[in-house]
Amino acid sequence: MNPKRLLAITRAGIMESLQFRLGIFVTLFANLIYLVLVYYLWKAIYDSSGTDVVNGMTFTDTMIYLILATALFNFLEMFVVWDMSRKIQSGALVLDLLKPMRFRKYTFWSYTGNHVVQFVLTFIPTFIVVMIVTGGAIPLGLNIVWFIIATVFALIINYNIEMLVAPICLFTESTWGINIVKETIVLLLSGATIPLAFFPEKARMVVQYLPFRAVYDIPLSILLGKSGSDTWQGLLQLFALQIVWMVVLTLAGNLFWNCAVRKVTVNGG
Amino acid sequence: MSNEAVVMKNVCKDFKVLNRHEGLKGSIQDLFSRDYKTVSAVKDVTLTVNRGEIIGYLGPNGAGKSTTIKMMTGVLEPTSGELLVNGKVPYKNRTENCENIGVVFGQRSQLWWSLPLIESFKLLRDLYMVPEKDYEEMIELYRSLVDIEPILHKPVRQMSLGQRTLSDILAAFLHNPAIVFLDEPTIGLDVSMKAKIRELILGLNKEKNTTVILTTHDMGDVDALCRRIIIIDEGTKIYDNDIEHLKNYFGSYRTLKIRRTDDTWEEYLIDEKTTDVMDVIMEKQKEKKIKDVKILEISTEEVIKKIYEGGAR
User: Fold this and answer.
1) Between chains, do A97 and B94 touch, taking CB under 8 Å as contact?
2) Cβ contact (<8 Å) for A90 and B108?
3) Which residues of A touch B129 (CB under 8 A)?
4) Which of the four pLDDT bands, split at 50, 70 and 90, describes residue B83?
């Protein structure tokens, strides 16, 4: 694969995202409101529990986790399902199929630019603010490197989850409901809204092996040194889980897409 | 490379369509219905397009033009028959095929909406892996054919429809493809823009020997660009020859224009094989006084209109 091609698409994506600078500020503002809400909600939960540590997490731990999860969510968020349903309805999908690149690859790289912009403009500032406010509660070291690797894996897993849902529009011709269901499932089961530590024991046993966790919970755990990621063995386990899901979902996504694209080529979409 | 850009042999394309029922009850029935009917969009079409040709691919709305184009680009798979584009089966090698074709849909833009045109060009250059030298040459050629300076640094979303279509056509030719498909490129454009776009297409075809397959409803496009036209109706090819032949394809028609004394013009389409023009003039003279008479060659537009209306079959 020619890296120049991929860089060119990423570059265009960055430039396109930067056109919507107002949107970035709105996102930051919306996050602020959301985080105020989260702050008071969890404060009430901790106050009523009567102890400082709930499920092994202090109030500060929980807040750091949720703030970073929100920032990570903004950065990882993709609109593949939404974009594809719009393209199918307007017939513009044909234009993407006419690019001299495999569709899945082209689509993935066309989002990369946006990820880069969001990472720099929302995740890094949030991270720095958290560091300043908590007085350096997040350890800085090799975990940053592992975190970045885990985030790249998370990106690929998230994309594949999206690509498993998006082609459904080709069959249903409507996606709004499906997209909402997908988003809710991902946000809940990935630990982006409630830390996985707060899940009931039995539910957690199941959830911790599902791919959703690999999107938000694993990168965050690695960054914060939780879930045993402070030991080599624990770290490898987390990475192994990500890699397994990455491979499985990529294969499944490929298969499903090929199936869906056949529907387009046979019946005109 | 062989001399044929596109070869189609007995190509058919069927679509399976759900039989929809009327009313609320019908809509609920449709949820569980397995009642499909087959619609043939393209029936047994055989044609060859040679390199360097500009082909007008015509037909009334819903005749199967877009379906054929989509098959040639590899987006649709033919139900049966043989289809080769640049010597390859397009739907089996879609990605590869796309490197060698350019496509413009008059109603959609493939450019990056919020970026200046030059950025779209650079992106396409990298996407199609065009060597820097060829790219520079192409831009130079564009400069010589149209005035691109005013639009080069303008974001696509701020362009007028004409500028956008122009840009889209330039973008489709940028990687110097063997074939360019233009699907109604002049739709919605003003007269001078249409002329500009026709000139551009002609210039690019001449310079690069690019095969152009053009669908349009504007006979001005056909007259200005195409030597050969193919007409398809209800999925079947009904005409495939020069424009000159078309005019006496189903009789030697002429348009008779009569000016009355009150300066109103009347128009009659006359088939010289069955009716004598003089007879008509005589007859009209009996009705009312005639001030002036003109006998004209039938225009392409009128021939096409007659064909679409079923006069040819």
Assistant:
1) yes
2) yes
3) 2, 4-5
4) very high
Residue A202 burial (C-beta neighbours within 10 Å; 0-12, 13-18, 19+)? exposed
Residue B312 has pLDDT above 70, yes or no: no
Domains and CATH numbers, chain B: 4-247 (3.40.50.300), 253-308 (no CATH)
| Cβ neighbour number for residue B285 with a 10 Å cutoff | 12
Distance CA B272, CA B260 (A): 23
Q: Give dist(CA B188, CA A143) in Å, integer.
A: 58
- Asked whether B181 and B213 are in contact (CB, 8 A), the reply is yes
Inter-chain CB proximity B108 and A97 less than 8 Å:
no
**Predicted complex: ipTM over 0.85:** no
The rounded percent of chain B whose pLDDT value lies above 90 is 43
Contact B99 A16 (CB under 8 A): no
Does residue A107 carry a pLDDT above 80?
A: yes
B98, B105, B127 ranked by CB distance to A8: nearest: B127
| CB-CB neighbours of A129 under 10 Å | 12
- What is the Cα gyration radius of chain B? 23
| pTM (two decimals) | 0.83
Nearest to B44 by CA among B88, B89, B84, B83: B83
**B161, burial (CB in 10 Å: exposed 0-12, middle 13-18, buried 19+):** middle
Within 8 A of A21 by CB-CB distance, chain B residues are: none
Residue of B nearest to A109 (CA): B127
For chain A, the structural domain boundaries read 3-267
The CA distance from A207 to A216, in Å, is 12
Instruction: Count chain A–chain B contacts defined by CB atoms under 8 A.
Output: 75
What's the per-residue H, E or C state across chain A? CCHHHHHHHHHHHHHHHHHCHHHHHHHHHHHHHHHHHHHHHHHHHHHHHCCCEECCEEHHHHHHHHHHHHHHHHHHCCCHHHHHHHHHHHCCHHHHHCCCCCHHHHHHHHHHHHHHHHHHHHHHHHHHHHHHHCCCCCCCCHHHHHHHHHHHHHHHHHHHHHHHHCCHHHHHCCCHHHHHHHHHHHHHHCCCCCCHHHCCHHHHHHHCCCHHHHCCHHHHHHHHCCCCCCCHHHHHHHHHHHHHHHHHHHHHHHHHHHHHHHHHHHHCC
Q: What is the mean pLDDT of the segment spanning A121-134?
A: 86
Instruction: Answer yes or no: do A16 and B112 touch at CB < 8 A.
Output: yes
